[in-house]
């Protein structure tokens, strides 16, 4: 499938600070667009990475991310917190 024909996908993750992040939303094409719009409307940062979304798209809603993605997802969460002006208490 060429890039122009590739299905758009969106996978939403939730992280409670204790357990592994888990998939809370997943959609393709028009539903993917809606997921992205709703996320942005609620101030959720959106990261576009086709390889990562391909890996996450294999998971079901409610499923935790695999260990192989822990570091990558942790880096994205940390970066999004910094962009949002949130820092660990120990940084003050």
UniProtKB/TrEMBL annotation:
Q: What is this protein called?
A: Flagellar biosynthetic protein FlhB
| Homology family | Belongs to the type III secretion exporter family.
**What is this protein for, i.e. what is its function?**
Required for formation of the rod structure in the basal body of the flagellar apparatus. Together with FliI and FliH, may constitute the export apparatus of flagellin.
Question: What are the entry keywords?
Answer: Bacterial flagellum protein export, Cell projection, Cilium, Flagellum, Protein transport, Transport
What Gene Ontology terms for biological process does this UniProt record contain?
protein secretion
Its source organism is Idiomarina fontislapidosi
Q: Which GO terms describe its cellular component?
A: plasma membrane
A Pfam family for this UniProt protein? Bac_export_2
Transport found in the keyword field: yes
Lineage, broadest ranks: Bacteria, Pseudomonadati, Pseudomonadota, Gammaproteobacteria, Alteromonadales
């Amino acid at each position: 499938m060429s890039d122009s024909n590739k299905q758009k996908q969106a996978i939403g993750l939730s992280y409670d600070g204790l357990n592994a992040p888990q998939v809370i939303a997943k959609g393709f094409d028009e539903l993917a667009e809606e997921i992205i719009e709703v996320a942005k409307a609620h101030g959720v940062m959106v990261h576009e990475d086709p390889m990562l979304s391909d890996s996450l798209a294999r998971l079901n809603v409610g499923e935790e991310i695999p260990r192989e993605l822990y570091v990558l997802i942790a880096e994205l969460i940390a970066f999004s917190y910094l962009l949002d002006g949130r820092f660990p208490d120990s940084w003050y």
